[in-house]
Design goal:
The protein has 354 residues and is α/β, with parallel strands linked by helices. It has helices at residues 14-25, 77-90, 174-183, 206-221, 240-247, 336-352; strands spanning 3-10, 30-33, 95-96, 101-107, 110-115, 120-127, 149-152, 166-170, 188-193, 253-255, 259-261, 264-266, 272-274, 277-280, 298-299, 302-303, 305-306, 309-310, 313-318. 22% of the residues lie in helices and 23% in strands. Bound molecules: flavin-adenine dinucleotide.
């Protein structure tokens, strides 16, 4: 038996919840389908020491400020999970769990969303499935020959799992720097980055980054010169543990190696480093395989959108994957505006087409 509603939101993380908040305000009928068994999206899978790079008030979804976490300027991931669970209850958002969406299809005048517990038909769909579920690993020669452990950011939990081991952390972004800092004290660490690490100034946290991203968007909207946005400032937010490890000289990076061998890695000049484990902090890609039946056009690896609306399928909106679906839309504070715009456009679309 098929369920029917006006709007299906795929994903019940922060992006899905922000969409739900605005759909509710506009009086639309909707459901959120989420593959997790409990609230919190990707935050419930973060490594133990992960903290936000902004204070609570600057990490809030629309309508309800995140409360501060006692004793912490930058809340931890568990605090975010609790906030999202509370948010869901506060606005009585209809989340169905665990429901995995297998595919979205055109079905006459409707979209049909196939799930592992039966189909839903809807007039519009918002996809808000995040990136955590699609870790990216580069291909490096010799990868299969390495006899130690290889894992991605998504599998890393705590330094206790690697105490006393020789660990190579690969990646010069925030995940790489934070995991390297986490491991710097208890392991024999080699941190490897593709280009020399670019730390942001110590006084720049998520608050300042959001202001810079907003100013850039305003400049672009008003036809002024592109300020370059946050990318021009650096890659790594110097959160307290990263700053501390860097200042103690524990975060010096080596350039990228050229291959793996059975016992570790090797650089182009033949230098080798032995390793028990390699942790690939090499990023994520949008988790969008459920949209493949719609055969949407891509540009530079992204589905083509205008704002959040998919150009090839105007009944479909994308929320939260990256800047191409709205400035700072992959962050807690940044998702509010694109979620509001998507909900408004869907409401207008439903009114216009009866
Ligand atoms: P998710 O949290 O991934 O939620 C998506 C949901 O959709 C999940 O519950 C998932 O199970 C579900 N789903 C996926 N596929 C399907 C499917 N086929 N069917 C049904 N459900 C599905 N942002 C900040 O604002 N501040 C920070 O300090 C910060 N730190 C970060 C640190 C790290 C290491 C990372 C990776 C990101 C960080 N972010 C931060 C960015 C961002 O806030 C998070 O990535 C956030 O989890 C994105 O939320 P989301 O709702 O888009 O995706």
């Amino acid at each position: 038996m098929s369920h029917q509603t006006q709007v299906v939101v795929i994903g019940g993380g922060q992006a899905g919840l922000a969409a739900g908040y605005h759909l509710r305000r506009l009086g639309l009928d909707f459901v959120l389908l989420d593959a997790q068994t409990t609230s919190g999206g990707a935050w419930q899978h973060a490594w133990d020491s992960l903290h936000l790079f902004s204070p609570a008030a600057y990490s809030s979804l629309p309508g309800h400020l995140m409360p501060p976490q006692p004793g912490e300027t930058y809340p931890d991931a568990q605090h975010v999970v609790e906030y999202l669970a509370d948010y869901e209850k506060r606005y009585q958002l209809p989340v169905e769990r665990p429901v995995r969406v297998l595919g979205a299809h055109r079905d006459g005048g409707l979209l049909r969303v196939e799930t592992d517990s039966g189909p839903w038909h809807a007039r519009a769909v918002i996809s808000a499935t995040g990136t955590w579920w699609r870790p990216f690993l580069p291909t490096v020669p010799g990868q299969a020959t390495f006899r130690g452990r290889q894992l991605h950011t998504v599998e890393y939990r705590s330094p206790a799992d690697f105490a006393g081991q020789r660990v190579i952390v690969v990646g010069g972004g925030n995940s790489g720097a934070q995991i390297a800092a986490d491991l710097a004290h208890d392991t024999d660490l080699t941190w490897v980055t593709q280009r020399p690490p670019r730390f942001l100034a110590d006084d720049i946290d998520g608050r300042a980054l959001f202001d810079v991203a907003t100013a850039r968007r305003r400049a672009l909207d008003e036809g002024r010169t592109d300020t370059g946005g946050v990318a021009s400032l650096g890659d790594i937010v110097a959160v307290p543990p990263v700053r501390e490890a860097r200042d103690r000289g524990l975060l010096t990076a080596s350039p990228m190696f050229s291959r793996l061998h059975t016992g570790g890695v090797e650089w182009a000049d033949g230098t080798r480093a032995e390793a028990d484990a390699i942790i690939w902090c090499t990023g994520f890609r949008p988790a969008l395989s459920h949209l493949s039946p719609l055969q949407l056009r891509g540009r530079r690896g992204h589905i083509v959108t205008e704002g959040t609306q998919v150009v090839d399928e105007p009944r479909l909106h994308l929320l939260g994957y990256g800047d191409w679906t709205g400035p700072a839309s992959a962050t807690l504070i940044g998702i509010g505006r694109p979620a509001r715009d998507a909900a408004r456009e869907i409401a207008q679309f439903l009114t216009a087409y009866g």
